[in-house]
Amino acid sequence: MADGPRTIIEKIWEDHVVASEPGAPAILAVDLHLVHEVTSPQAFTGLHARGLKVRKPGQTVATADHSIPTLDPSIPIADELAAKQLRQIEENCREFGIPFHGQGSPDRGIVHVIGPELGLTQPGMTIVCGDSHTATHGAFGALAFGIGTSEIEMVLATQTLLQRKPKTFQVRIDGHLRPGVGAKDIILALIARIGIGGGTGHVIEYTGSAIRALSMEERMTVCNMSIEAGARAGLIAPDETTFAYLRGRRFAPRGAAWDEAVARWQKLPSDDGATYDRTIVIDGDTLEPMVTYGTNPGMGLPISGRIPSPADLEPAAREDLEHALAYMGLEPGSTIAGRKLDVVFIGSCTNGRIEDMRAAASVLRGRHVAEGLRVLVVPGSQQVKKQAESEELDEVFRSAGAEWRESGCSMCIAMNGDQLEPGQYGISTSNRNFVGRQGRGGRTFLASPLTAAASAVTGVVTDPRTLPGVASKPGAAVRSASVEAS
Amino acid sequence: MPEPFVRTTSRAIAIPRANIDTDQICPARFLKITDKAGLADALFFDWRFTPDGQKRQPPSFIDEPHNVGRQILLVGDNFGAGSSREHAPWALRAWGIRAIVSTGFADIFRGNSLKNALLPIVVTPERHAALTALLAANPDGEWTVDLEAQKVTLPGVDTFDFEIDPFARTMILAGTDEVGYVLSRLPAIEAWEAAHPARVDTRS
Asked: Does A230 touch chain B (CB under 8 A)?
């Protein structure tokens, strides 16, 4: 163990090293394993082949989110492959004794939404899932990262992983966000600055006054997209905001155990004088609403900006941008603001929580979506859906002409029938604008819920600050208590 | 159980693009399988096939007739970005790829590849440029990727060494199963667990 000041990343790492043999990766204990239907079937098949059980079913939880339809659940699933996959996770969970929140469960939802809302995600934990957006849970000061199916099998079989110690990367966001600018804009600005490979080999710790001022849900949005900067994990040290969010949630400690846990969690923040392998600083006061123009999340710019010219770039980047602009049908030097849209998607593990629903509703309340535009609002979980409906946000969306759906990954990954058609332009609160990500031939602009909702009203990519009454407060337009603990 | 892999000799395929994400390598609609069947066909699907399912003309990279059967890819920086889907290395292996040469790989993809005995070989930008030029000048030259010697032998006399995670190298060379390796350390895991009670019980 290292003497002297340590970062939170090193503290959590060292806390979980079971064994460390010369030349070999550490065996790292896993506190919580989240499982979904798409990346797990082959891992369970592997367990069967080995004749092994799930070693710690009580540290494992499963749901169905990626391929599940967001339509009325009483409608049979048309896609036979998806239906089979959904049956299989249910059977696997039953056989191996893993709690499963499937169709019909009030706790079903996107795996990265339900972990926090159930209070399963806690500071200081190691959390893994066969999904690259597992870094979402880092918002609580957990070391959380995505794994492949071979590693899922490893965790099911051993409750550990073989891991090399990551490098540390401090991303400090100083100052204060201006009205209309939120968590999504922070992370898109970071990725635009360091590129989609900029964090490779590192775990990011987000620090600074602009991060401290974020709600838990906003912190989740920031950590969620760490992978889009190439970092397998990103986290934020726990503080009173974290504890207030967790207190009273179903799986959070209670009574004396709560006090002990808080005392333990308070020791997690990076020590004064701890050093990082790399640090960058961004001035939060200068950030604007961000939007992407290309085919990876690093191709983003302030909404008032103009698309760069390939001619100004190095050869490799030039070719990348030329391909991207050809796919997107966009011209160098033009603006994204004002670009006509076919679809608006509000949802995903990045922006599918109740504050995101409230932000979108704050724009759409008393307004109507532009003619000919399809607007899909997909809550991140059934709990988010229920909460939104109790606040009558669903009525706001429906009255505005948007569709209000069951929870799931939906158009973020376009596996369940929710997708862009070839050539369509969509603005999306999700995390990836890769070629074909939201449907083959579909063209994605990534943005915040405020920007997406403002664009839904006008039918073109729109700076939310230009709509009356939208950007009166910083961050999410409506900053109020998050979903009440269940 | 994995098969041991030591070295292979093959011609190489250049895909001169950076930031090839796993959605390109294996589009998400092919992730609805519950086994690993059919993934060779899913590899780079949208690059290879038109929306109505016809093979593109001229064919895309790996479908060029002379590229069939080649086992080595030379690709741009940050290969395998994005989704953690192991279907990407499965699809590459199913098609026949055994080694990928780039200036950089995304973390999760690199790890997933090593678990499937698919070698991510990192080279400097200078070496990458030289290899690109070599492949353009001699597209049918045979390359030998030798994991045991950590050396690539190029057509002619040129060779270069490469770094690879020493543990992964040992496992791949011997065809050792990592789950078996960890389970053989179960007493250490149980000792750790005895000292660190579970933080949650998802069944409660």
From this structure: yes
